[in-house]
Sequence to fold (611 residues):
Amino acid sequence: MQELDFIETPENVELQRRLAGIGTRFIAGLLDTLILIAIYVVLLLIWLVSTFADVSGDADFLFEAWTWSMAILLLLGFVVYWGYFVFFEMRTNGQSPGKKSQKIRVVKDGGGAITFTDIAIRNLLRVVDGIAGYAVAGICMFVTRKAQRLGDLAAGTVVISEATSEYFARSGSKGDVQWQREASPEALRATGLNPEEYRLLSNYWMRRSQITLDARRQLLLTLVLPILKRHGQAPRDESVAMLEYHLELLMHKAIASEQTKPPAPGSQGVQS
Amino acid sequence: MTPARFLETRRDAWNRLETLIAKAGSRGVARLTDHELHELTRLYPAVAVDVARARMYEIDPKTQRRINQLAIAAHGLLYRRRSVRPTRAIWRFFRHDYPQLFRRLWVYMVLATAIFTVSTLGAYVSVRIRPSTAHLFVPGGLDVVDESEVTAEDVSERYRRMPKPPMASAITTNNISVAFAAFALGITAGVGTCYVILMNSMMLGGFFGHFANHNLSYECYSFLIPHGVLEIFAILVSAAAGLRLGLSLAIPGQVTRKNSLRAGAKEAVLLVMGTIPMFIIAGAIEAFVTPTYVIPGWAKIIIGLTVWAAVMAYLLLVGRRKDGKSVIGTGKATVVALT
Fold:
């Protein structure tokens, strides 16, 4: 079992999520069970009152009313039993009251949103996970890497902890090796960028063909333009073409610097 | 750029994002105006990058955590399921998806039915040859019919005395629970599901055999068929779901076991969800039609078979429009009758 789960957002930033521990999940489950028991006690009380209460009136009508209220009570008991977790996890995007109290949440393994089907699968499989007081779930969580019980495995979900809010983005990304390439000192010197900015810009440059034009405009305006401006390259206008032209100049400078290493002393800096 | 300047230039964006997230709350982006939503989609990628930059500048952990938290919260807001009205989703499911799913998974249905049939016949033949084995198949349920002079009327008398609405409720909920268990136990590579099928089929076969031994077959059938045909059919559908789940784990084929299980579970859970209305119909028949004196036995059998035929017609004919083989006429009629 590991402690962290990695997701890569579509924005190409990799976030780390902290997985909820078995102990926390057990406490959350215990709380949910207590709430369920409380609901059943209330239903039982209603049953007792409606069965043994001394009400005067038309006997036939009372009997009829009693039979229907019994039917509804039975139905309620059933709906609560199977629907409690499904209802709350649907409503709050993955948090039953017990989970909420422990600040843990059900999320899709690998990012994305949980759907009704996911929630239904993981909660119907409680039948099996719950065998011998959730022993099956416990063993399963011990042996799986992401502390998943059977329901989680089948639904493709993990339970994460939001308690310590320890999310860190790892710079760079998985995937194409090209994007992960560290900036060489020569390229940095030639472009005047710091490593983080360089990675950002080259990332965009490598992937731009896979991005829609609208998204490119957004990325250029929010990410690339500020960096260009900081390095004294204010484009004439803020069109995609103009911004990418300036970006291209920078990228070429970086590539050229690497092909002609070692660079001559004094040739560093911006030569626009 | 210095860390101080980084903080200074980006602080407004973070504050703004925080305001937007707070405004959206747990209800999601629906609470934001169009303009604010647009702002959110613009702020989020920039703040996601800030997370990385904040790490690089090694600014204080508290601020780093705050930016991380903002990025995750915004991510959670933007990447969540589209909310569809439940009524609409349910209508769509039963109008198109469910019959299509049923037809796609027919192999599992055949498999479940085959196991069921063989086991029922086995128990029946066994009880016919050796009447004493009936107790093995129907545990505790034979006390009423133990004496050969007992008629089916006496058996159904038990049911007649029970108040009907709670009975319908109890039967329906119990059957749905069995169906859910048949699905869930599929995670044991299908073994648990087979156990559910065998338990039910042997009981049924034993029951039939026992009544046949006492020459009460007609009474038995008129008592079981009205609700039983649909009920057993629905149990078989949920068993098929369990087998789909189990075999996706046992025989993943070309994909990884993990992905095979996920895909299998997704189809299987939907297959079992669709049995709920069937059990409600069967439960209503069992409580209100089966025990009544008013309708003669043969008419009850016809009612039971007709309802089952209607469900079959729905499963086989509805929702075909998309793949071109149009049988829409019959399909529409059936779906209206059922919903």
User: Anything to note?
Assistant: Chain B touches chain A through 54 residues (CB under 8 Å). Residues 323-339 of chain B have pLDDT under 50 and may be disordered. Chain B has two domains: 3-78, 87-338. The CA atoms of residues 46 and 191 of chain B lie 51 Å apart.
